[in-house]
Amino acid sequence: MKDTLAQVRAAYDHDPEWEWRRLESGAQYRLEHLVTMHALKRHLPVVTPDRPCHLLDAGGGPGRYTLTLAARGYTMSLLDLSPALLALARQHIAESAPAVRERVSAVVEGSITGLSRFGDAQFDAVLCLGGVLSHVIEAAPRRQALAELRRVVKPGTFLFIAVMNRLGAYRSTVQWPSCYTQYFPHLPETGIAAIGPGGAPTYYFLPEELVASLAAAGLEPVRLYGCNGLGAHLPEEHLNALMADPERWPTWRKQLLDTCDHPSIVGVSNHLLAVARRPAQLTTRRDTELG
What we know:
By secondary structure, the chain is an alpha/beta fold. It has helices spanning 2-13, 16-21, 27-43, 64-71, 83-94, 98-103, 139-152, 166-175, 180-183, 186-190, 207-216, 236-243, 248-259, 263-266, 285-290; strands at residues 54-58, 75-80, 104-109, 123-128, 153-165, 192-195, 200-205, 220-226, 271-277. The radius of gyration is 18 Å and the shape is globular. The model is unreliable at 283-291 (pLDDT under 50).
């Protein structure tokens, strides 16, 4: 486990600027960001002067979601495994408007498998985006990570957990032929491959496997999203042209967001985003043990 975490840390320390740019660097990543923000807006509690909302951005890297949500009124705590990503996050936070800086309450180094620095039911929602859980490649530590994420969120509230999709990876070998040897023959047998410029070890989930893992951790799966939506694996140049078209893009964007949780879309997307709820009542012995 320690060796795996060290590999993941080294992979993301390798080029932190790439991770900061990732969500705006290509059509597929831009779709991932668009659909993720759509899901967050749909399920996050609304912040009001009488109702503050504290979120944990677990594995939030350079802080793109932390900063975006802080600008929308949420109080944010950012945790990540990579010192280089956190250093970049601190830089961007320091350059932000005072009101945004004030809403970032913590920037801490750590793993989602051990959140002891945070109290039970401390947060109004937990984000674990970008495939962070997929970088916990062994089954037992993944169960521990889900138990920890569940522990720190308030009962009755939501967790947003994104993973890499194995079915999407198979399709990627057609869109990007250079990926073929990255995934075959070992991915169908083990579910494990490397990803990103630093080659971070990654576990690729099947959609039904993610749902089962959440349920086994005492979480109630609410909705699955395909983060690349209708645009999954479509040609970059065509998607970029569509996004730049002021007449076509608004209509197509609406269809993208209206269908991003359709089962046919979820199954082929590169990233899966699960919205799950910690049950409001602890009604079983297993539920009590994990809570």
